[in-house]
Amino acid sequence: MNARLIDLLTAEPVHVGDYVDMLGDVDEPTTGLAHRLMRTNFVPRIYERYWRPVLGRVAKGLNGPSMADEHRFVQENFALRKGDFVLDVACGTGGFTRQFARVVGPEGLAIGLDSSTTMLTHAVALDSAPVYLRADAVRPPLRDESLDAVCCFAALHMFAEPMAALDSFARILKPGGRVALFTSGRRTWEPMRTVDTLLGQASGQRMFDRGQIAEALRARGFTAVVERYAGVTQLVAARKGE
Q: What span, in angstroms and rounded, lies between the C-alpha atoms of 215 and 189?
């Protein structure tokens, strides 16, 4: 499976082992406390069972979507088939990537991309069906129009250049390909809007306005945009124009 991933790369990997490494000794710069914690040895051990669900519930609110709802949102908007090629950007320990691998089967390719060695090591230990890539999440080193779907959940707001990441997603998706995002969505009512901004600054997370991501996707040629908001989060899906 790694050989099929390597065929999609736009540069030679630094190392190929349990995962394909494009960064070597180079680390992406962190954007704040939340981003730095992702690179520790502790967080990957609790990421899927405690860290992501608990922090997600705080951000989404008591009536917001569950983790299962997030997975359903992706399933409904991707409509993946056997043989599809799908990328999970900032995959963490591979919760979504493993789901994609089960759907696309051995005929397809499910790629989990992250810059954290600790996250990827844990992901590989959990399941070897997907393939994993350590690389720049903002500029994935993958060929133009090579993928059927790109997922980026709970990460875009921690990227130093989130709009450049959206440019990359548009580049690597085939015409008609799908993107699904879960990121911050600042509330519109003051003074909560100010509170959201201050909390984002304290943790090193960008607070996007509601509608901002949808607008950015449309500006990049995406259509059929779907938006859902809960608490200080937004779920957004769209299709790249033919």
A: 20
SS3 21: strand
Alpha-carbon gap, residue 166 to 29, rounded angstroms: 18
33-54 pLDDT, tens digit each: 666 666 677 777 788 887 788 8
Asked whether the beta carbons of 136 and 23 are under 8 A apart, the reply is yes
DSSP SS3 for 36: helix
Closest CA to 133 of 144, 143, 124: 124
| DSSP code per residue over 89-143 | ET-TTTHHHHHHHHHHTTTSEEEEEES-HHHHHHHHHH-SSSEEEES-SSS--B-
Cβ contact 91:112 at 8 Å: yes
Q: Say which range, 17-31, 38-52, 63-77, 111-125, has the weakest mean pLDDT.
A: 38-52
Burial class (CB in 10 A: 0-12, 13-18, 19+), 211: middle
* pLDDT score, position 128: 81
- Is-contact 221 200, C-beta < 8 A? no
CA–CA distance, 18 with 180 (Å, rounded to integer):
27
Q: Which CATH class is domain 2-240?
A: alpha beta
pTM of the full structure: 0.91
Show me where the domains of the chain are located: 2-240
